[in-house]
Write a structure and sequence with these properties.
CATH superfamily: NAD(P)-binding Rossmann-like Domain
Oligomer: single chain
Low-confidence stretches: none
Helix content: 40-55%
Strand content: 5-15%
Structural class: alpha/beta
CATH architecture: 3-Layer(aba) Sandwich
Length: 263
């Protein structure tokens, strides 16, 4: 058996990567990691200005372009799919990161809070993956599968302390959808894995992290005693996209400082 040189185990140079929700937060962390690692990265997000600004910053580091699209709509899904076909005939890595959250007490939680969150966090993940299958198939091979990386959440693994009912349901659904897609696409040499982040400094967690007392409580809940960093999340995504991660599919990788594994 021939063993690839260690120097190539984490090499993603030349790969085409699409990161949805890539203009901020975890999506931007992942996009930056791929750009700095030598991949060609396309980022998409709902707000055109934010998308263009993030892509401009990343383009100073490597190869990155932006295409704004609201993936909660059919028009947005079609627009991004068509743009990807124009940019490249093959897609090596799809990172389904775009998502939404909603919080309200149980007795006040509105139907719209479920409709919005599940539509973007679950249905759009499925729909975009489905639409991009031809490009993923074009990139797939037994030695180097195409990759789908879905961003789930620790809140889909363990009980949340927040009133985010639709969010936790959506992320648990993403984890199971990941497993189902992995089983279906494995014969086509397309791997499907999920990353379940714990607490990272993003706009979604700002309400807790900007309050010193709440921030201390969040950090105290993490066995490793700190928040996640861009290197933590981007490194995991690059591992799943590189040769080192090519034998994994159907996994949900918790990047949470030990919260889910020790609770």
């Amino acid at each position: 058996m021939t063993i690839a040189p260690v120097s190539g185990w984490f090499d993603v140079r030349g790969k085409t990567v699409l990161v949805t929700g890539g203009s901020r937060g975890i999506g931007l962390m992942i996009a930056r990691g791929f750009v700095e690692a030598g991949a060609t990265v396309v980022i998409s997000s709902r707000k055109a200005d934010a998308c263009a600004k993030a892509a401009g910053e990343l383009a100073a580091l490597g190869d990155c372009v932006a295409h704004p699209a609201d993936l909660s709509t059919q028009d947005g899904l079609v627009s991004l799919t068509e743009r990807m076909a124009e940019l490249a005939p093959r897609l090596d890595v799809l990172v389904n990161n775009a998502g939404a959250a909603w919080g309200a007490p149980l007795g006040e939680f509105p139907d719209s809070g479920f409709d919005k969150v599940l539509n973007l966090n679950v249905k759009a993940v499925f729909s975009l993956t489905q639409r991009l299958l031809p490009a993923l198939r074009a990139a797939a091979s037994p030695a180097d599968p195409a990759r789908v990386i879905n961003i789930g959440s620790i809140d889909g693994l363990v009980r949340s302390r927040s009133d985010n009912y639709s969010y936790v349901a959506s992320k648990a659904a993403v984890h199971m959808l990941t497993r189902k897609l992995a089983a279906t696409l494995a014969p086509e040499h397309i791997t499907v894995n999920a990353i379940a982040p714990g607490p990272f400094p993003t706009r979604m967690t700002a309400y807790a992290l900007e309050d010193p007392e709440l921030r201390a409580g969040v950090i105290d809940s993490v066995p490793l005693g700190r928040l996640g960093t861009p290197e933590d999340i981007a490194g995991t995504a690059i591992f799943l996209a590189a040769r080192a991660g090519s034998y994994l599919t159907g996994t949900v990788v918790p990047v949470d400082g030990g919260i889910s594994g020790t609770r």
